[in-house]
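User: Could you go from structure to sequence for me? I need the amino acid at each position, not a summary. C-alpha cells:
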C-alpha cells in the first residue's frame, strides 16, 4: 500500500501548489449581441408577433439552463443582483471581442474595420508557449475574425466568413461545407449562417483535437439588427444546441473528457424596449450589459449567480488562462483580474 500512497500524496501536493486545475482544454463560444434579457427571462412578450407564445428561458436555451447553470456558473442576471458588463465605451463587436480576447479595452480599437489588432490576444500569448504550439484554432461566422486575432502574426488557424477550410485534409463533409460557403445565397456580405462556422469547427475538432477551440456565432446580432425577433430567438436556440453538440462531442472523446472547460458569452448587449432592442453602441447605454457562463472540472457548481460583485468582459482573458494554470496578468498587468469564483481555490 505504501508504494502508491506516497506518489499519490506527492501528486496531490503538486496539484494544490499549482491551484489544482484539472482543465487542459478550453472551448470558448461567443454569440454576437445576444441580450442578457432573453438569456435570463426567455422571450419578451412585448416583442413577439401576434399569436406567438412566449418561451421561458429553459425552452429558449435548454443546454444553458439544464447543464451550464446546474453544473457550472452563469453571471449577468441584473434582476437578481448580478451585473456583467463591457468596459469599452463602444458597445459594438470588434472592441468587444478585442476586450474579451486581450483582457483590456483599448480606445484605439474603435471600429469594425478589417484592421489587424495592434494588441495580442490571450490565444496568441498562449500559442507562444511550447505546450500550445499548433494546439489552438479559431472559427468565426464574421469575416473580421482573422483581423481581431491578427491571424498572420498569431500563427494559428483562424477560419471565418465564407472562407473555405483547407487547413485539414478534405472529407466529403468538409467539401460540401466549403461548396455551401461558395454557392449558397449570401444574406449578409460579411458572414454566412452560423451553421457554416459551427460545422466547420466541428470537422476541425475531429481531425486535429486542438487544446483550445474558439467559435463565434453571428446570427443573433444580424437578425436583431433586421428587427426579426423570431429569427433572433431561433438563432439563440440554435447557438444553445450547437453548444450542447460541441460539449457532448468533446465529452465523448477521451482526450477531452473531464479536462475541458467551456466559456460562453456575447461581445455586447443591446438596448431595451420595442425599438432599442435592435440596436447597440455608444448611444445605447444598456448595451454595455452582457452575461457569461462557465462549465468544467474546475468550476464549482454554484449555478445562476445572484447578489454577487459585478464581473467585466476584460476579466475573461485572465480567467481563461487561469483555468490552464497560467498567469496572464504577470505579462499583461492591464488585463482584468481572473474571476476567482469560477477557478479552483
Ligand atoms: Zn451589431
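Assistant: Here is the amino acid at each position, in order:
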Amino acid at each position: 500500500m505504501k508504494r502508491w500512497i506516497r506518489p499519490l500524496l506527492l501528486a496531490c501536493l503538486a496539484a494544490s501548489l499549482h491551484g489544482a486545475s484539472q482543465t487542459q482544454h478550453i472551448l470558448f463560444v461567443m454569440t454576437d449581441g445576444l441580450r442578457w434579457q432573453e438569456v435570463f427571462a426567455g422571450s419578451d412578450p412585448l416583442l413577439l408577433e401576434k399569436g406567438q407564445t412566449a418561451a421561458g428561458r429553459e425552452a429558449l436555451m435548454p443546454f444553458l439552463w439544464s447543464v451550464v447553470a446546474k453544473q457550472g456558473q452563469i453571471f449577468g442576471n441584473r434582476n437578481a443582483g448580478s451585473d456583467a458588463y463591457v468596459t469599452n465605451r463602444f458597445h459594438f463587436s470588434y472592441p468587444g471581442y478585442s476586450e474579451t480576447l486581450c483582457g483590456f479595452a483599448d480606445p484605439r480599437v474603435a471600429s469594425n474595420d478589417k484592421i489587424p489588432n495592434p494588441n495580442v490576444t490571450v490565444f496568441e500569448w498562449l500559442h507562444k508557449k511550447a505546450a500550445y504550439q499548433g494546439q489552438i484554432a479559431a472559427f468565426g461566422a464574421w469575416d473580421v475574425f482573422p483581423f481581431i486575432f491578427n491571424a498572420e502574426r498569431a500563427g494559428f488557424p483562424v477560419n471565418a466568413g465564407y472562407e473555405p477550410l483547407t487547413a485539414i485534409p478534405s472529407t466529403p463533409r468538409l467539401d460540401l461545407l466549403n461548396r455551401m460557403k461558395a454557392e449558397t445565397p449570401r444574406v449578409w456580405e460579411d458572414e454566412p449562417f452560423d451553421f457554416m462556422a459551427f460545422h466547420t469547427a466541428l470537422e476541425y475538432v475531429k481531425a486535429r483535437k486542438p487544446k483550445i477551440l474558439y467559435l463565434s456565432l453571428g446570427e443573433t446580432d444580424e437578425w436583431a439588427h433586421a428587427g426579426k425577433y423570431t429569427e433572433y430567438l431561433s438563432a439563440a436556440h440554435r447557438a444553445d444546441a450547437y453548444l450542447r453538440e460541441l460539449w457532448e462531442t468533446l465529452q465523448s472523446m477521451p482526450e477531452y473528457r473531464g479536462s475541458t472547460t467551456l466559456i460562453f458569452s456575447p461581445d455586447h448587449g443591446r438596448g431595451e424596449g420595442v425599438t432599442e432592442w435592435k440596436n447597440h453602441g455608444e448611444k445605447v447605454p444598456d448595451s454595455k450589459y452582457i452575461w457569461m457562463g462557465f462549465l468544467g472540472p474546475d468550476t464549482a457548481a454554484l449555478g445562476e449567480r445572484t447578489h454577487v460583485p459585478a464581473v467585466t468582459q476584460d476579466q475573461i482573458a485572465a480567467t481563461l488562462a487561469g483555468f490552464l494554470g497560467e498567469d496572464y496578468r504577470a505579462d499583461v498587468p492591464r488585463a482584468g483580474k481572473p474571476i476567482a469564483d469560477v477557478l479552483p481555490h
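One structural detail worth keeping in mind: The radius of gyration is 20 Å.
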